[in-house]
Fold this sequence. Notes:
The chain has helices spanning 2-16, 32-47, 50-54, 76-89, 159-164, and strands at 57-66, 73-74, 94-102, 106-115, 121-123, 126-130, 135-146, 149-157, 166-171. The longest helix is centred in the N-terminal third of the chain and has 16 residues, at 32-47. The protein is of the alpha+beta class and 176 residues long. The chain has a single domain (2-14, 31-171), classed as Nuclear Transport Factor 2, Chain: A (Roll).
Amino acid sequence: MRAMRTLAMATSLILSGAFTEGVCAQDPAAHPAIQQLVGTYAAAWGSRDPVRIAALHAADTIFDLRVDGEVPAIGREAAQQRFAGILRDNPGYSSTVRKVEFGATFAIIEYTIAMNPPAPFHLGRMRYVPTGEPYSVPAIDVIRFQEGLVSEKVTFLDTDTIRANSRGAAPVGASR
């Protein structure tokens, strides 16, 4: 429930206009530089290469995966390690974008992640045991850019969907 509330809160903030300064979803030509950066960044994720993804982040970047127990990755190397872990745990990673809004220095991306992890994995304070069946997870990214690089990426995931599609989920370190 907490993950759904967090995802709902992120969606509410977006829809309420909390991030509307400079948002021009109706005018796709309003922020072409940001659109180009987002396209390059999406291609890097599509390559599934954490080095290529991290290269588009500033040296002092912040990657904040909003999942209970996750600590933000600060710095390009820490972000690269986190990206490598995400791709390792879900080797079939792909995403489908549902909506993008562009601002003068940021983008808000609503998307769905295709999941089919082959082995148990940790996400925040939880260890999930996959069922072996593919599923989709709703997600939202708020990405801020400075000088042509990602300065901050905040990702909201629906961990309730991950839990519902797992054979088991337990706090890390809990005995079974």
